Amino acid sequence: MLCGLIRSCLTQDIKYHVLHEISARQLWEISEKKYLMKSIESRLQLKRRLYRFQMKRGLFIDEHMYIYTKLLTDLVNVDVKIDEKDMALIY
Asked: What pLDDT is attached to residue 91?
């Protein structure tokens, strides 16, 4: 039951990698290792997304803020600290 709940929260491309897992713990650990790594690539990709972040046409401001907040949370989760110089460029 818990595996089904976890799978329901995953996107299609992620589901493919954990399709045959039957243990919720294994499912979670595989997903965590694959997608929550604190690698340099992850950090750079998230920083790139932050620096290129723009409001998209047709989105409400609350949707825009949700995406922005999620991006900042993802950066915090991989231990990225945004210094004052970067903050000046972003805001």
From this structure: 61
Asked whether 53 and 32 are in contact (CB, 8 A), the reply is: no
Report if pTM > 0.70.
no
Whether residue 86 sits in one domain with residue 44? yes
The count of domains in the chain is 2
- Helix (H) / strand (E) containing 84: helix 84-90
Query: Does 27 lie in the same domain as 65?
Result: no
User: Quick one: average pLDDT of 13-34?
Assistant: 76
Residue 16 pLDDT more than 80?
Answer: no
Query: Quick one: 7 exposed, middle or buried, by C-beta within 10 A (0-12, 13-18, 19+)?
Result: middle
DSSP 39-78: -HHHHHHHHHHHHT--PPTT--HHHHHHHHHHHHHHHHHT
